[in-house]
Predict the structure.
Amino acid sequence: MSDKEVKITIEPDGKIIEAGRGETFRSALSRSGYFFPQNCGGKAQCGHCRIEFEDPQPKILPREIELLGAESRLRLACLRRVNQDTVIRLPAVLEWSGDKTITDFAVAGSNTAGYGIAVDLGTTLVALYLADLSKGAIMAQTSFLNPQVHYGGDVMTRLEQAKSEDQRKILTDIVHRALEESINTLLVRTGVPGDKIRRTFISGNTAMTHLLLGRGGEGLERAPFRSPLEGNGILNLDSTWIGLDSDCLCEICPVIRGFIGGDTTAAIVAAGLDQNSGNRLLIDLGTNGEIVLSVGGKLWATSTAAGPAFEGVGMHDGMPALKGAIEGLSETGEPFVIGGGEPLGFCGSGYISAMAYILNTRIMNPTGLLEKNAANERVWSPLQSSKSSPAVYQ
Ligand code: FES
């Protein structure tokens, strides 16, 4: 260890990592494999990169009071720099829960020999399906948390990070390695040899497609939010990048325009929106959300950062759907907490459920005005007893 480096001891395991003097705790921990839900990408906006200092214990900063409350023992890893040997504790909220399951569905037979893999490359969740192409049947499926979430919860934060070439390589490489690992999982589970995978089709939003191809934002991250991939039709990926044989055809759904990407193309085709002349609305409410309106056969589409709008930057007590997040409320206002235990914040569905509850019970009026509570504040929490409970603020 050079004299510029100091030690961070991480409880409860007692593991010791090294950090450069002056480096942020966020950077040192991420580099050592401790990942945070960093929705804001280290800009001290989301309040998610929480650590607890055991020794020494620094005073709370004004920004931490805003995001965590004056009484909090937690501090923000992106604001704190390592200046001396330090003992910290990582709260349980740092555990991402990536165990979501996906409902199976039937696929039309394509009468092609061999096997294929379909990938839904989401900003947060990535799902893979291995199909027998001759029968048009899905044989196995798996999903994993997109490892890029540790570098930013939303696409704009990741594109911002990708401006650095080193960071861009990391973002691309970690998703390639995760795809390779999951493909191997499917192969082992089904007994299908890797060289029998003849086709792979990947759909993702435009930012995910850029990063998958090893590209940065290239204009996508600033107005007028255009992508050089627009109008290029089906894109190709070198299949060896994700551990498949070089003769496996690996294709990516076409980008339509700007953030209306390949995932929207896939959703339009899957819903048959392009085949129907009626008036219909398609909503893909993911981390990056898209809405497509079909009017008399003509399609209109738009896109927004739906997940972070509820879960990340800007919402008091907003958090991703991690252990401790309120994901919904009962009819009587009881919170359902992911993983049980003390609620730590609201994820998107929890916020929507809370809005419905306080609107139905007239705690909030139809204009959005909250009734004052006993402390004469326009604040409502499903757990009135605790001052530090997650709450909806006016
Ligand atoms: S990553 Fe530190 S506050 Fe968002």
In short: Residues 165-190 form the longest helix (26 residues). Residues 93-109 have pLDDT under 50 and may be disordered.
